[in-house]
Amino acid sequence: MSPDHPVDEAMTARAVIDADGLLVEWNAGAERLLGHSAAEVLGRPAADLLADAGADGTAAPGRDRWDGVVTLRRRDGGTLPVWVLAHRLRCPQEGPDRWLVVTPLDPDGTRKHDDPLDDVLLLDSPCAIVIYDEQLRVHSVNSVMAEVLDLPAENVRGLRTHEMAGMALGNDLEGRLHHVLTTGRGTAVRTYVPVGDRTLSWLARMAPIRDTLGRVRGVSVAAHDFTEQHQAQKRLQLVNEASVRIGTTLDVTTTAQELADICVPALADFVSVDLLDPAEHGELPEGRPVAPIGLRRTAHRIIDSDGGGVVVVEPGQLDHYPATSPQADALLAGHTIVASDATGDLDQWLSWDPQRADHIKKYGIHTSMSVPIQARGTTLGVAVLSRFANPQAFSPDDVLLAEEVTARAAVCIDNARRYSRERETALALQRSLLPRSLPRTAALEAASRYLPAARSGVGGDWFDVIPLSGMRVAMVVGDVVGHGIQASATMGRLRTAVRTLADIDLAPDELLTHLDDLVVRLSEEAGTDGVSGEVGATCLYAVYDPVSRRCTLARAGHPSPVMVPPGAGPVEIDLPAGPPLGLGGLPFESAEVELREGTVLALYTDGLIETRERDIDASHALLCQALAASSDSLDETCDRVLHTLLPPGGAADDVALLVARTQGLPASRVATWDIPSDPALVAPIRKQVVEQIERWNLTEATFTAELVVSELVTNAIRYGMHPIRLRLIHDATTLICEVSDTSHTAPHLRRAKTYDEGGRGLLLVAQLTQRWGSRHTADGKTIWAEIGLLGET
Fold first, then answer.
1. Contact (CB, 8 A) for 122 and 140
2. In the predicted model, is pLDDT for residue 530 greater than 60?
3. Under a CB-based contact definition with an 8 Å cutoff, are residues 785 and 729 in contact?
4. Is the pTM of this model over 0.85?
5. H or E segment and range at residue 32
6. What is the SS3 assignment for 426?
7. Which residue of 32, 33, 242, 582 shows the fewest CB atoms closer than 10 Å?
8. CA torsion angle 281 282 283 284 (round to 10)
9. CA dihedral defined by 48, 49, 51, 55, rounded to 10 degrees?
10. Could you give the 3-state DSSP secondary structure of residue 276?
11. Each residue of 442-464: pLDDT tens digit?
């Protein structure tokens, strides 16, 4: 005994027995009790000290604590009946358990006649009270504390806290008792006491006991049971945690797994979540299901594991459950059902599948609870909660808690299911509105990618490549504000409008002006009660001419494209920004750049470069880096760009990417004539055209070309304004005839009457050519017609 910690080790007989039954610790009190020294007994079987094999105990030896009377052998050959208390010692390094065996030594023989602790009245207190003496040993306990400890009050006298309550709990409490004893200041502590299969929550108030001279002679501990309040607090905490942790994504599987994770180990040792498969069109069947019920395992969780071993059904597996199964019974009844070994209904519940029942019994599952997952009047599935490590059966409070948590998860699962169905619908609509393949043109080769947002759903991004007259081609990339079916539908309307406006060969800035008017009208239509809707979009429109190798571009609030000239590094094309579509009345400006043959153009939406992880400049630098890597395949370039800029889990916004490599039309495939204002010269012009076609070895198109040139040139001389120019262009599959003049009046196709002498020329042109039309230019107009070729030259 020391002044710092006034404990006399010899006042308690204490020994420690290892997993093999050998004595590994033996204190001075044990030597005093039986006469054996530590050297004589350490390493020997503890059973050698027993005088009889039987023992009168109050608990089974298989539990974590045992107390009772045993007869021990003394060193002098005699025997001694002794009351002992044994605690299982859990090894923190997961080694074999040991047992601590203690008994007090004649505490009454050491009592003082003037002990102030005897004056403390305990017996009538409703609180559980224990009195400790100056050596921090139990002096006395009242009947309430003896009942809580489930130990005889007369036998615990003289024990220390860890000898009475166990090492883990006792060491901490003894330190606090020592603090009160030495400082004379009381304190309060919350503690959790394992008693049998339960863990009690206590608020212990420690106060010093003083004698008439004011000296601290002991410590009183009054313990108040707040187990019910603690359990209620834990339930509220679990419900609050469920509201935070469940529903973090709009994915059904993830949400189901979150439900399983939140319930283990707080509520159950094993949880499985099985959901009904949606019928056609993604709808769940109405009303209550009918047995047998097909359920797909969506998630499960087992304590300290991923479900291996105890799990019979793997995630994603579809199983059918009859009316006698836990899953089907709860769904058919429409409420929670609890079954346990104690009531005998668990065996009956599992009788439908003997193999499954044997597997479950192998792992010691003794109670199960099936909770239907229901939301908005729809049955989604069932959650089955089971216990095997926790020895307690489910209480009514556990059922209420499971139903509350499951109800919260059900709403999140239903939201995720509805979102998934809408996302699939929107994605199908989006992909049906986007071009299935890009057209092959003589002006450029192109590749594209479209990726829907990983979390926010399908949006309104689109791209397109539109062949124009004169071998020219238009490229367009746009982005509609918002996500979902509405954004996809708006995107489809804008893409159709762009194609229509491109067909009449509007300049890029004029096309965006007309598109802006359309978005304004869509916004007005989307609003109600005079309030404007929120339809908006951005767009980039570019027209490339392979003859002049020049590209005209305009943008409406959209990122500028990046070009990579042959043998040079990537450069962002400097374009006037332009306002987003939908503001109305603001002008758009276009710019013209010369593109050498083989120049790569990258047009994209802002989802490619806008991210929370880095700023725009850093993303733009990565884009240029990805484009700078040389590659003959534009598909490889697209994949490299997406891999470089997008996170592994997908982008937060839709991404549309269009990559094109320009091609130039050689001058040898273009022929131009200036036409005098004399109808008599049409024949010589026609002859020169035939000669040129023969030089190109396109004789199969001679007759049609001669007729088309004759008609278009004659009309230009009669109705147009000088100067007049004729141009022939051809590639491997098409011969184009173009006649330009300075008149802004466009011709129109009409059906001539029977006795009319004219009016049939354009009708013949339309019948003999693939397509024809007119386009306005800065100086007037151009009438063009395309003649299909039978083969390549």
1. yes
2. no
3. no
4. no
5. helix 28-34
6. helix
7. 32
8. 140
9. -100
10. strand
11. 899 999 998 887 766 667 888 99
